[in-house]
Amino acid sequence: MVRHARKRGLIDRAPVAAVDATGPETRHVSAHFGMRRAGPGHRQRAWPKLTAVVHAHSHLILGAVPGVGPSQDSPDFAPAMRQAAGLVAIDTALADAAYDAEHNHRLCREDLGVRHTAIPLNPRNAGRRWPKAPCRRAMRRRFPRALYHQRWHAESGFSQHKRRLGSALTARRDAAQQRELVLRVVTHSLMLLADAA
């Protein structure tokens, strides 16, 4: 698939990848309607979750980890990035503060060969103190804001995905929903390839 994407000009020479998570709906009603129907104080106990690595230039989804929320975002960063880096030599990785962890910076730079990362420090992890870990310290010293502003491509990719394939899953059980999420990711990328043909 990546070979065809390169042929069709979807993968650029210095790929920028944005990492984020989204929660598809589990039924064909709006979240607002669901909350009104459930009444005040009601919280949904669990929901399907997709962590994705979105290629900024094409909105191809290079890596995807399905799961169940609510849960912390950071643990899904490594498997999603490893998938993406196995397909494309990523030049720059962007993510929000939910993914702020020294091991995520080091994974990108030392293990996956990513030249630049832009992950802002999470105040809960650092407060006002300077971080001791070298990669996080570098983020505090000189944060690449111009690069980070491209992170909106992840949300744009999710929006495109939901416009084309719908915002709600049809499966009901967790395992089936996770399989459906993976199939939707593959379908999303095939549709982009077809558009570029």
Give short descriptive properties of this protein:
single chain, 197 residues, alpha/beta, Nucleotidyltransferase, domain 5, 45% helix
Structure notes:
This protein has a single domain (2-26, 42-155, 167-191), classed as Nucleotidyltransferase, domain 5. A five-stranded mixed sheet has the order 3-2-1-4-5, with helices on both faces. It is globular, with a radius of gyration of 18 Å. It is built from nine helices and five strands; from the N terminus they run αβαββαβαβααααα. Strand 2 (47-55) and strand 3 form a beta hairpin. By secondary structure, it is of the alpha/beta class. It holds the Pfam family DDE_Tnp_1. This is Transposase IS4-like domain-containing protein. Residues 15-188 form the Transposase IS4-like domain. InterPro entries: Transposase_11.
CATH C-level class: Alpha Beta
- The total strand number stands at 5
* Helix-strand sequence: HEHEEHEHEHHHHH
Strand numbers in spatial order across the main sheet: 3-2-1-4-5
Share of helical residues: 40-55%
Could you tell me the radius of gyration in angstroms?
18 Å
Biggest β-sheet, characterized?
A: 5 strands, mixed
- The stretches of 5 or more residues where confidence is low (pLDDT under 50) are none
Architecture, CATH level 2? 2-Layer Sandwich
Distance between the termini: 12 Å
